[in-house]
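Mods, move this if it's the wrong board.
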Amino acid sequence: MKSRIDTILESLTLDEKIKIIAGWPGNDKTRTGDIFGVERIGLPALKFGDGPVGVHWWTHNGASTCYPALICLAASFDEDTAYRYGEALGTDCRSYGVHVLLAPGVNLYRSPLCGRNFEYLGEDPELAGKISAAYIRGLQSRNVSATVKHFAANNSEFNRHQTSSDVDERTLHEIYLRAFELAVKEGQTGCIMSAYNRLNQQHTSENYDLTVRILREQWGFTGVHMSDWGAVYPTNSTAQTIAAELDLEMPCASAYTPEKIKPLLETGVVTEAQINKLIRHRLALMERFGWLDQAGADAQHDESLPDPNPATEAVALDIARNGIVLLKNENNTLPITPEKVRSIALIGRQATARIFCGGGSAYNPPHSSYTLEEALREAYGNDVEIRAFAGVKIWNEEEAVRFTKFRTPDGQQDGVLAEWYNNEDFAGDPVKRIDERPCFHYYVEDPAEGITSKNYSVRYTGQFTVEKEEDYDIYTVCHSNATTLWIDGELIGKPSDITHRRIIKKLSAGTHTFRCDYIARSRGWVQLNLGWEPVSNTLADYDAAIAAARESDMAIVSAGFIAATESEARDRQFAIEELAGKMIADVTAANPNTAAVLYTGGAIDVGPWIDKAKAVLCLWYPGQNGTLAAAEIIAGKTNPSGKIPFTWEHKLEDRGSYNCYHELPEKKMRVTYDDGVLTGYRWFDKKGITPRYPFGYGLSYTTFAYENLKVSGDMDKEVTVEFEIVNTGKIEGAESALVFVGENTPVVVRPPKELKATKRVKLAPGAREKVSIKLPPRAFQYWDIETHAWKRGSDAFTILVGPNAGETPLVASLN
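Not the wrong board. Structure tokens:
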């Protein structure tokens, strides 16, 4: 008897088969998220939705519940929290009829510079894998397929379409594939998405060893393998991509077109059986979730669900409560109670603006949100006087672009001269036109007539006039690549790996000339903005803010990044903006009783001011209700319990990836992962480097003790680790325990310890809880490059248990 899938396959024509192995871009190029159905045989189309922190395609009014960034979820160190996150997000998907969600992202945190760290789950593969698997189970419990991304070794955003991540076999299996493996084996993810970057010099969407031998044969993945949006475009290697079992080219066909596939079928380079295999994976996914007929696909849309949904918004708030991290609390500065503080000066753009999400495809507009100012006013009512000031308008790029008026090089008309070259060398005769300003945003389509190369360049030249001599903020903003800027013939901004830049320069009154060169090395998502404005525009209430800090009982200053400065398609800086750093220094000088609130997807350089701030609270990107959670923590209504899921360095040079994160001149388009298996805290441990904050660090308003470690079992079968956690403080609190394993005399280079399990417990004052954790044989193994398999090297190991990587009070030997 034929299966339903066999019957459908036999019913499809060749043209229909080719059509349904690529996505449909839709009529609106800002929202691409369908795959074709075949109406003739009743095969339904499916709706895809982005992204990891909320559904922002297919919504009714352009908004949905916005959850905290996944880095905040990872900071909970809790699989139950991750499950509830996925379950709530799946409920939102059902509200809009979404079948497949393009999430979660599990690429590891190699450096704080990666603009997409906030979308991921930290530096440790075991933590990222366990949290993502729980997220996936929660999501898929609502009949929505997850899509784990970006497969694999997509750990930076600069030049992401071209750069090769060169990773040795052992490092790949132990570090950069582990989270994906857990997402497949324990999460049972329905879909997986290939990455933009090359892996060992081959694009991931056509990497047979990665996507067939490892993903399908070793791990047993039977779901749908799709490309990232536009990830196949740079190569168009149709035969290789089909052989690598890329089931869906998204968002639309460039390699998977009839014009490219049919000649390959005629010559036998590609077979129809290979095409059928791709379609089988898609049909099997639809059968698994009940979408093979139109009625089943339509049932995905649950119109009875409210929108906005108070239940999912409550989950978003609770995740922020569990993930916000208290980094410093000198002299118990926090919580702030009306008994000890009657007035607060709240300073910083992040405190007075709605900051809920990082930038790029993860950006998710909510139905409603709170500024930190609004949240604190709600928490304190009339008990505490709060005076709020922006202080410095951090990253005022949009206003600066509108502020700048351009004239052509001859000064005769408004606009700029744009010269487009069909190469990245500014060579040959350009296509010329007059544009309003140096500003463009293209996705896949040709940016100018006749510009068809995937690597192209554009040169803008013109004039601008400033009315008076003063310091100006100069912004160069671009996706994926970099700009070079000259003003009056002086080089202002060199090409760099940090593609969003803000430079302060003094300009004299009068007319100035400029030239801006931009090189695009992809045909995916490219964007450029250029503009400048007086620094005085960004400091409108600065003096009043410092005066208020001086006059108040306490100051709270906010800093860090926003969606414009930490985003997909570009890397960011380690330091915060220069004027923001000055603002913190001036506030702490005006009022020694100052707390800092940070918005960030990873570590930032806090060195210039950290010793002067009495308390530091890291909010990450806390979602639509996260500032309410922050206000609860500041006011003492919630006890902080989050822990940082990465190692926070003093300086960039401390991290193992420092010399192997961006491509080097002698290794053009290649990044060799020279730190190997010693990524993150493993490097700091091995090299004896003391970080600013160790992996897993986070303070509480109470205290915990670890006691009575017992280890038993067989490393070839199962090892049981038992211990007790005691709340030794005066209030209820939650604590996440970390269990590490270290090999005493390894036969290969291994880190001193590696995370193998975590457990979060909530305890009343004086209460204790016994924790029991089972460690499988893999917890003691490494990847052997001789046998290409997992192997235990010796019989002597150490089990370490504690609150973070720098503090493991419980230690036991295992032989």
